Amino acid sequence: MARSYGRIAVLFYMYGDIDSAINYETRGYDLSAPGSETYAITAANHSLYLRSENRYPEALAAALESLEYFESEQDSGQIVVLTNNIGYLHFCMQRYEEAEQWHERTLSIGRANQDTMTQAMGLLGIADALAQKPGADKTGVYYEEAFVLYDALGMQREAGIVLNNRGEWALQQGDLDVAEA
């Protein structure tokens, strides 16, 4: 029954009805046995739905709960998604040091698994966190590395996001040459 509620929640989420998605995911969450795979998947989805409602502390708690399970199962695919999400949640709460640390973890997993897309996600997250810290001198390097990887993967949307974020950062730094590139 819990998985059915989860599937219904995904449909509501896909159609933009976040309130109903959260409602159904909460039902599935409540019916799942803590420590089970269903509970962990439900927690991960619940985190995403809460994030879309800017309910970051609640989203973070659900993501961390889910991560605990997937770490015990050594499921690197789920761990990467969650570490990246947790980094983003910290970023949204203006906890830039924590965001950087979680995205470093994402990058590390990507490098260990030779997963270019995961590396690009981690690099972008690190660059975005560093961009919020005055005097972070490696920000541009991380943006450039993320762009090169996304571009090589043919992920033009993501490469465009990197260029946009790098341009905004460069403008804040007064570097008009990079901002215009």
Query: How would you classify the helix and strand content by structural class?
Result: mainly alpha
Tell me, rounded to a whole number, the average pLDDT: 89
Q: How many strands, which pairing sense, and closed or not: the largest β-sheet?
A: none
Strand proportion: under 5%
Count of individual beta strands: 0
- Order of SSEs, N→C? HHHHHHHHHH
Separation of the first and last Cα atoms: 52 Å
Low-confidence stretches: none
- Gyration radius, rounded: 18 Å
Label the overall shape. elongated
Task: Provide a count of the helices.
Answer: 10
Share of helical residues: over 70%
Record the SSE blueprint.
Elements: H1 2-14, H2 18-31, H3 37-52, H4 56-72, H5 76-92, H6 96-112, H7 116-130, H8 139-152, H9 156-173, H10 176-180
Helix pairs in contact: 1-2, 1-3, 2-3, 3-4, 4-5, 5-6, 5-7, 6-7, 7-8, 8-9
